[in-house]
Specification:
Length: 307
Amino acid sequence: MLDSLAQAAATADPVAFFVASAVAAIVSGTALYQGLHAFWKLRLIVDTPTARIRSAPQGYVELQGLARPHRDLLRARLTGLPCVWYRYRVQKRRRSGRNESWVTIDSGDAGRPFVLDDGTGRCLVDPDGAAIRCRSTDTWYGPRGGGRAATATGMNALVERHRRYRMTEERIAEQELVYVLGRFETPRRGVRERQQLTRQLLSQWKRDPERMHAFDHDGNGGIDLEEWEQARTKAERLAEQAESRLSAEPPLSRVIRTEDPSQPFVISTEEEQSIASHLRWHAFGGTTVGLLAGIGLAFTLLARAIS
């Protein structure tokens, strides 16, 4: 087999050999990168201990708990099933000559955080920017806008006639166990927030002629320095009152994405062991394919060089 590969490399057309070598190099590099990235992610998940929400440190943490709605339960976009978070995608099958491909024509997600409860406390989880894996995932074919139940109970002939559209929906259900790896932070109220609210109030008042007229005590049609200072004092007093009300109810801590590429943001309804098992296979497969493709490319280049 190696002799045949060496002979083919030695006698191949230069242009075809260059194209094949470039493709092999891309495949090798991509597979090797993905395999090593999966291995690095695996080590990060395995080496990060699970924290408890009540005593979790500020920063990068691993949490696990039950999902609960932030306010009210949501209804998933395509199926209408109750959940705390969902993501959907609608694709249309398009044909170009003899080739067919699925093109996404509509997609989105809940756009809202949900609550994680581990028994010691609660925190908000904002899924924006997270790599999310859901066990509750449905994929079906049918007319655009058709519900899951309608296509599932219809006749096969009817479904087959409308297979131009493919719908996919992922959901996190209430009380479902969720694994989270991300940045944990507790919002704090203080001088900076009070100053920011004061600036916002003054900015709003500037755009309100009636409000500005109320500060014009001498009636000359303008706001002098003394009148503006009175407006600022009032805004500071209102901001302080608002901050006092907010401080009376401590805000929930939250988990969000990090800005550090070495700290991935992961949300999964699979258990940690299942996530680790998936990453092990991904790491092994990627590195194996990458190394084999690289060795094969090096062998063919060497065979052509000495021919």
